[in-house]
Design goal:
By secondary structure, the chain is α/β, with parallel strands linked by helices. It has 8 helices and 10 strands. The strands form 2 sheets. A 7-stranded mixed sheet has the order 3-2-1-4-5-10-9. A 3-stranded antiparallel sheet has the order 6-7-8, with no helix packed on it. The mean pLDDT is 88. Bound molecules: S-adenosylmethionine (SAM).
Length: 232
């Protein structure tokens, strides 16, 4: 049977479902007690130096950090004098980030909100960062988000993403959605979505972007650099 891809209205309906509410609830609770790895900058962003070089070479100014968590990478970029806005659905993460922001000489704007319903006007940013968020959405919602970003990031702008690939066997208890996304049922990951990406799947996610680079890092992460070639 041919798989149905969610259209705009289906995506909006899904966002009102209890399945989706449970996944955002998972992230709210997660930030009350995050994994220790969250604080290991080099582990999470082994490619950060390459990203700095890339942004410098194309004269990026305004960056949107999509699913910014407690702002780890937002602050690193603000220290390099970029104007950074971070958005995350977790009020706990955003209040941690704002707390750091008030103690830091570099200002970052943080918004608490859903990345699937962002308030930013057309062309607000010349680059976007999406670190470890696409794999935690359903594939259909990730595609919807990637398409929305085409209007928020200006034509010619860049979207830089990292996606981690966790072996499906590591999860014991889950249901599978029609787009092949897992909904985890384990007690400590109750409601979390996880979508496993291969390189081909990543390319299908960025189908409307020009993928300039896709690199598999040795610790099972991908780094993707894509350019918004549209004029919409
Ligand atoms: C694995 S964490 C990555 C955080 C950050 N990008 C980093 O690299 O440290 C995923 C983040 O996405 C956020 N998130 C998940 N779904 C979201 C949504 N629909 N809207 C906004 N943020 C979301 C979570 O709250 C969490 O902070």
């Amino acid at each position: 049977m041919k798989k149905k891809v969610l259209d705009h209205q289906d995506s909006l309906d899904f966002l009102n479902s209890s399945i989706y509410a449970n996944s955002t609830q998972y992230w709210q609770n997660y930030w009350l007690n995050p994994l220790p790895l969250v604080n290991q900058f080099e582990y999470r962003y082994p490619d950060f130096n390459d990203i700095k070089t890339l942004f410098k070479s194309i004269r990026v100014k305004n960056i949107l950090d999509i699913g910014c968590g407690n702002g780890a990478i937002s602050f690193e970029l603000a220290r390099l004098n970029y104007k950074v806005t971070g958005i995350d659905v977790s009020p706990v993460a955003i209040s941690q980030a704002c707390g750091k922001s008030s103690n830091d000489e570099f200002d970052v704007d943080f918004d608490c909100g859903d990345v699937l319903d962002m308030p930013y006007p057309y062309g607000s940013f010349d680059a976007g960062l999406a670190f470890y968020i696409f794999e935690f959405l359903t594939f259909d919602l990730a595609s919807y988000l990637v398409n929305q970003l085409k209007s928020i990031i200006m034509p010619g702008g860049l979207l830089v993403s990292s996606i981690s690939t966790i072996d499906r066997d590591k999860f014991l208890n889950y249901e599978v959605l029609p787009d092949d996304t897992l909904i985890l049922k384990d007690e400590n990951q109750q409601g979390m979505f996880y979508h496993f990406y291969t390189e081909a799947k990543i390319l299908s996610l960025f189908i409307n972007w020009q993928v300039k680079e896709i690199t598999r890092l040795d610790n099972d992460k991908y780094l993707i650099v894509a350019r918004n070639f549209s004029n919409n």
